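can u do me a favor
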């Protein structure tokens, strides 16, 4: 067994078979020390199973998970090594938040005062003595994070920690995780939404159907789909030739008549266009959408029918689209009261009437 020297967490050819279902398949990746690493994949892609194998909660069919270069089960002080959030619902509803945490302080050998310290740290100081059963999903997420922090761990492993948090809570979590890693500690955070953690993580591990699709930095992922400048010009074909003569060959004529140019900036394009007597009407920077890159890597695991192919029709006995109920309309003989009719032909104000004295 060999280990990457700079790794806080490491998966080496992890495979997990549940009966006929292969949840994780020959998965290998490294989480560098002192970073926030995002562990991304669609629901059902094997993320939680992988995290459980890394922490010794699920035995792999083959392969091995390492924490600080060794299986987690061999750690002398496990709570000081790893704090994990894998389930936000495992708490007694009638116990207070403080009581819930004191059960763990006793188990891991830290003072009870640590419970109130971490509750204040995650913003639940005022709710310390409230029953956890009345907590919102976001409050339960904060409580489980407080549980993970009890042992003052070197590594945090968080499974969907932003689930249920409001925007203020997400911003707080982002700042907290960045500060945690900046102190030399390590975070592995799983999610199925890239935008949710894009501003938080340094590195990405992307999986689909239990297999590795990408490992590296966000900057490297962006470089796989370079940004472009979209140019509206008087003669796109002539501009493309001028750009190619200047070594800019990554161009594309778009359906709307503009030309997409990668590998340069708008000022350079404008200069080349002026030298070629091509008028530039406008330029727009098109930045890569990492969410689309992520979806392109993971699409196909669970493919639903296209949105337009709706197999459902109207309820039984009703026509497609809107139609009034049967026999809908005014009652029979409905009309104005008897004797009512239009006004006489000469009906109106007297001639030369000026509205009366005011």
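np, heres the sequence
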């Amino acid at each position: 067994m060999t280990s990457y020297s700079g790794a806080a967490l490491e998966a080496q050819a992890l495979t997990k078979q549940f009966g006929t279902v292969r949840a994780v398949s020959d998965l290998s990746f490294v989480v560098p020390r002192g970073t926030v690493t995002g562990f991304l994949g669609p629901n059902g892609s094997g993320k939680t199973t992988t995290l459980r194998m890394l922490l010794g909660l699920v035995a792999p069919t083959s392969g091995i998970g390492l924490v600080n270069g060794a299986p987690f089960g061999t750690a002398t002080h496990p709570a000081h090594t790893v704090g994990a959030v894998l389930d936000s619902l495992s708490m007694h509803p009638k116990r207070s938040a403080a009581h819930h945490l004191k059960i763990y302080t006793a188990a891991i050998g830290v003072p009870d005062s640590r419970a109130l310290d971490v509750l204040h740290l995650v913003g639940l100081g005022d709710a310390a003595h409230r029953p956890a059963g009345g907590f919102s999903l976001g409050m339960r997420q904060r409580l489980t994070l407080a549980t993970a922090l009890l042992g003052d761990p070197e590594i945090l492993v968080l499974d969907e920690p932003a689930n249920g948090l409001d925007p203020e809570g997400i911003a707080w979590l982002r700042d907290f995780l960045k500060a945690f890693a900046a102190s030399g500690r390590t975070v592995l955070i799983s999610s199925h939404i890239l935008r949710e953690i894009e501003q938080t993580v340094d590195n990405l591990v992307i999986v689909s159907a239990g297999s590795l699709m990408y490992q590296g930095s966000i900057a490297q992922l962006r470089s796989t789909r370079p940004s472009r400048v979209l140019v509206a010009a008087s003669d796109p074909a002539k501009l493309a030739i001028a750009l190619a003569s200047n070594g800019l060959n990554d161009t594309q004529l778009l359906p709307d008549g503009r030309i997409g140019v990668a590998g340069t900036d708008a000022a350079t394009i404008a200069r080349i266009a002026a030298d070629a007597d091509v008028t530039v009407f406008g330029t727009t920077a098109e930045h890569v959408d990492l969410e689309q890159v992520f979806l392109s890597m993971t699409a196909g695991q669970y493919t639903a029918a296209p949105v337009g192919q709706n197999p459902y029709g109207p309820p039984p006995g009703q026509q497609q689209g809107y139609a009034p109920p049967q026999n809908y309309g005014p009652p029979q003989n409905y009309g104005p009261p008897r004797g009512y009719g239009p006004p006489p032909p000469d009906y109106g104000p007297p001639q030369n009437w000026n509205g009366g004295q005011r």
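The chain has a mean pLDDT of 86. hope that helps!!
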